[in-house]
Amino acid sequence: MAGNPEDDPRVYFAAERTLLAWLRTGLGLMGVGFAVARFGLFLREMQASESHAPAHATGLSQWSGVALVALGVIVNVGAAWRHVQLVRQLRAGSWQPGKISAGAVGLALVLAVVGVGIAVYLLLAH
After folding, report:
1. Using H for helix, E for strand and C for coil, what is the string for 105-125?
2. Which of 11, 70, 80, 97 has its CA 20 to 30 A from that of 17?
3. Long-range contacts of range 39-45, CB-CB < 8 Å, 24 or more positions apart?
4. Counting Cβ atoms within 10 Å, is residue 87 exposed (0-12), middle (13-18) or buried (19+)?
């Protein structure tokens, strides 16, 4: 076992596991976004088939779904970019432990705002 992090293969494996976790998060966001967008379409079709009238839709589910898919894409691209930066820092010996993940904190805040927005919408849309 080497003393320098850049010489320890476990550090690179940990970085790769982190990349894969971020990719799963991005894919999950894209999957949920797709489901949200398609669920709105499903509800419109159900409303139209029950009332035999044209379905009235706000398009909120489609826009929300597209936004979640876009967020998933951003997360995946950001994860790949951050992984490349981290591996370069490890190779150069300039990596600093204990650094806060700005991407993780940013994503958590964005998802919290989205969650509050959805909760408010669900409370007001009766």
Report:
1. HHHHHHHHHHHHHHHHHHHHC
2. 70
3. 40/65
4. middle
Number of neighbours of residue 1 by Cβ within 10 angstroms = 6
Does residue 75 contact residue 29 with C-beta atoms inside 8 Å? yes
The answer to whether the beta carbons of residues 43 and 63 sit under 8 Å apart is no
Q: Is the pTM of this model over 0.85?
A: no
CA separation for the pair 63, 46 (Å, rounded): 19
**Rounded mean pLDDT of 85-103?**
87
Q: Using alpha carbons, select from 10, 60, 12 the residue that is nearest to residue 39.
A: 60
Token pair belonging to 49: 């088939």
The answer to whether the beta carbons of residues 22 and 76 sit under 8 Å apart is yes
If you average pLDDT over residues 76-88, what whole number do you get? Answer: 93
